[in-house]
Write a structure and sequence with these properties.
Elements: H1 3-16, H2 25-38, H3 45-52, H4 72-77, E1 87-96, E2 99-108, H5 113-125, E3 146-153, H6 161-194, H7 220-231, H8 243-253, H9 256-264, H10 275-299, H11 304-311, H12 327-351, H13 357-388, H14 396-413, H15 431-452, H16 454-479, H17 491-502, H18 513-532, H19 546-571, H20 576-582, H21 585-592, H22 594-610, H23 620-665
Antiparallel strand pairs: 1-2, 1-3
Helix pairs in contact: 1-2, 1-5, 2-3, 6-8, 6-13, 7-23, 9-23, 10-12, 10-20, 10-21, 10-22, 10-23, 12-15, 12-19, 13-14, 13-15, 13-22, 13-23, 15-16, 16-17, 16-19, 18-19, 22-23
Keywords: Membrane, Signal, Transmembrane, Transmembrane helix
Organism: Gopherus evgoodei
Protein name: Nose resistant-to-fluoxetine protein N-terminal domain-containing protein
């Protein structure tokens, strides 16, 4: 497009726009000045820069390279010498004869989204446009029908009070560990010089009292209280605790030299299957791999049609978006259910009163204290970080998540985000946490039946299975939910898959070598069937088969049963090579930071994609390196969040628990 053609396209907009009251006068005046400076005998430098940053038609259109993003940074760098306006990057979302694509344009920053959209509409009425239409060679027919909607950005997103609070909280949990570490080191130095060696305190028990003798007649409460005094990193305080005492206890919870060793220790908990750590970490890596491909395909590929043809129905890419990587979340559900049952059984055993309201509330409060601090901090981190980042040409997904968190963050607080605003939820991947806690609410009932009536437990399990099967089958049949690649381009089915099926709790639901071998064979066959049947079952909207309905209703249960067998076999000593691999010490270390990694990895992927100014070329090697990079950064940031946020809150919970028991015994 030449300068003369640009004048031909835009100047009539100025001439005919005066009757259009929805276009601001400032936008029209500045646009007129830009065009005049561009068409002058000696064009102004800023006007040339604005023109040069416009998106132009590229090659490989047949491969999906339809977006014309232009140059985001170049546009924002353009400034009129008088200082009246500067360049503002806008995208025209264009729909033309079956194509939906974006075009980057550079306009004066006095123009708003509505101004650019209205000018585009006015230009269409006068047979002109901001941009040339798509060549008729690539449209469905030779007629041209263009509908445009503009979205503009000036660099940083706006920072409101909510974003400022989130940014403060994000920074606070970086400052607190540094402060706590310095404070604890100062206390240690003071104790070292004020007390004799025989009276000095262990480095991990500042301010706590120890006892080398225990009365044999001590009750369980006394033993628990003494255990708190011996092992808590906090000083045990009396009823008249002061503000300074509370501050002292809090700062010591953020002591890095106490929190870091808890990560490096690779010993598994007593009585817990060590293979769980390997299963958890490998499932997490599978999810990260799937999200890497999924989120890149949303907006960042310049050969998306080639990617669809190569990846979506190819079993070789089972590790990626083409495969049912969401089954990694079902693995998390199984592990969480198994551990939660053990936890509640232990609490019931120690209470000596069975399942009572006090035990149940304590069990649920412990779970909330485990989930919510890091969960809510991740929301603050997203809002704070995304508000101060200078985004690139593909900012829409980042803005979408930021706006959602500003609007419905409270649904995450109450763990209802899998039912409220599902398609516009805050940190959409945290639907898993809401689902997980909703399952936790049912655990006391299951344990109650287990302790009282095995027959009742069997009846409940059968009823839940049949209910899950029926509901899932009906949803799949009615909405024609896709089997593989649930985020393919079938918009209605995709939305229904996530809102009505994927995020809901009602759809998730060895004595000799011969038996062990048979169990392993069944587990492996079930897992292979669940993964590879997704590539063969017909699930198109026009020919949705009964096999797809049955698959949707059963595949998650079969997957959970297969993973359950692996856990059981490894626990009973029938795991063999699988148990050896899944029990490596490295999995134990990574499993301790897996919760933080799950929360933060989509944020990092969206951040990386949103900072790009050009589209990326899909290739196997590019995606492989991208996945490795995302995994590495996820583990680094996950480690930091675990040490800076998760472990300190565990210390606070331990302190409050010990103080509660101490006051009860005084």
């Amino acid at each position: 497009m030449s300068v003369s053609l640009l004048m031909l396209l835009l100047m009539p907009l100025i001439c005919y726009a005066s009757p259009v009251r929805n276009v601001s006068l400032g936008c029209l005046e500045d646009t007129n000045q830009f065009l005049s400076d561009l068409n002058a005998v000696e064009p102004k430098a800023y006007a040339i820069i604005m023109y040069d940053s416009l998106g132009k038609l590229g090659s490989n259109i047949l491969g999906g390279n339809t977006d014309r993003l232009g140059s985001y940074t170049e546009c924002l760098s353009a400034k009129v010498p008088s200082g009246k306006f500067q360049g503002q990057y806008c995208k025209l979302q264009v729909q033309q004869e079956g194509f939906d694509y974006s075009i980057g344009i550079c306009v004066p920053d006095s123009c708003h989204d509505e101004d650019i959209t209205m000018l585009a509409i006015l230009g269409k009425k006068n047979t002109i446009s901001f941009v040339s239409p798509f060549p008729s060679l690539f449209t469905l027919n030779s007629t041209v029908s263009v509908v445009s909607v503009a979205r503009c950005v000036k660099g940083l997103f706006s920072i409101d009070a909510f974003a400022a609070i989130c940014l403060f909280v994000s920074i606070l949990f970086i400052v607190l560990p540094i402060t706590g570490t310095v404070y604890a080191a100062a206390v240690r130095w003071e104790v070292k010089f004020e007390e004799s060696p025989s009276d000095s305190l262990p480095s991990a028990n500042y301010g706590s009292t120890s006892s080398n003798e225990k009365d044999k007649s001590e009750s369980k409460e006394d033993i628990r209280w003494n255990h708190c005094k011996m092992n808590s990193v906090l000083p045990v305080v009396s009823d008249d605790v002061s503000f300074l005492g509370a501050l002292d206890s809090t700062l010591k919870c953020f002591y890095l030299q106490k929190n870091l060793p808890t990560i490096w220790t690779v010993k598994s908990s007593k009585g817990v299957c060590s293979a769980l750590n390997g299963i958890r970490v490998l499932s997490l890596v599978w999810i990260i791999s799937g999200h890497t491909s999924q989120m890149a395909a949303w907006q960042n590929l310049d050969n998306v049609l080639e990617w669809k043809a190569r990846v979506l129905k190819n079993p070789i890419y089972v590790y990626s978006w083409s495969g049912p990587f969401y089954l990694g979340v079902d693995t998390f559900f199984l592990i969480s259910g198994w551990l939660s049952s053990r936890s509640l059984l232990n609490m019931v055993h120690h209470s000596e009163k069975g399942i009572i309201l006090e035990v149940t509330m304590k069990y649920l409060c412990y779970r909330l204290a485990r989930l919510q601090p890091l969960h809510m901090y991740s929301i603050c981190l997203l809002v704070g970080l995304y508000s101060v980042i200078s985004w690139g040409s593909v900012w829409e997904i980042s803005k979408f998540h930021l706006d959602n968190c500003r609007r419905v963050w409270w649904s995450n607080l109450f763990l209802l985000n899998n039912f409220i605003s599902v398609t516009e939820s805050c940190n959409g991947w945290t639907w898993y946490l809401a689902n997980d806690f909703q399952f936790y609410l049912t655990t006391p009932l299951v344990i109650f039946l287990y302790l009282r009536s095995k027959c009742g437990l069997i009846i409940l399990g059968t009823t839940l299975f049949l209910a899950s099967f029926t509901v899932t089958a009906l949803l799949s049949s009615f909405f024609r939910l896709p089997v593989a690649s649930p985020s393919d381009m079938r918009e209605t089915s995709t939305v229904m898959y996530f809102t009505e099926y994927y995020t809901k709790p009602y759809s998730q639901i060895l004595r000799n070598k011969v038996q062990a071998s048979l169990g392993w064979l069944c587990a492996i066959l079930a897992m292979l069937a669940v993964v590879f049947l997704a590539y063969t079952i017909e699930d198109s909207v026009n020919s949705y088969s009964p096999a797809a309905v049955i698959y949707q209703a059963l595949h998650r249960t079969l997957w959970a049963a297969a993973i359950g067998w692996i856990i059981f076999a490894c626990q009973e000593g029938c795991g063999g090579l699988a148990n050896w691999v899944l029990s490596w010490d490295i999995w134990t270390l990574l499993a301790k930071i897996s919760y933080a990694c799950y929360l933060v990895h989509p944020m990092l992927i969206i951040l990386y994609n949103g900072l790009q100014e050009t589209l990326m070329q899909y290739s196997d090697i590019n995606m492989l390196y991208l996945c490795f990079g995302h995994c590495l950064m996820t583990f680094i940031i996950g480690l930091a969040l675990t040490v800076l946020v998760e472990k300190p809150f565990e210390g606070l919970k331990q302190s409050l628990t010990c103080q509660f028991h101490g006051k009860a015994l005084l």
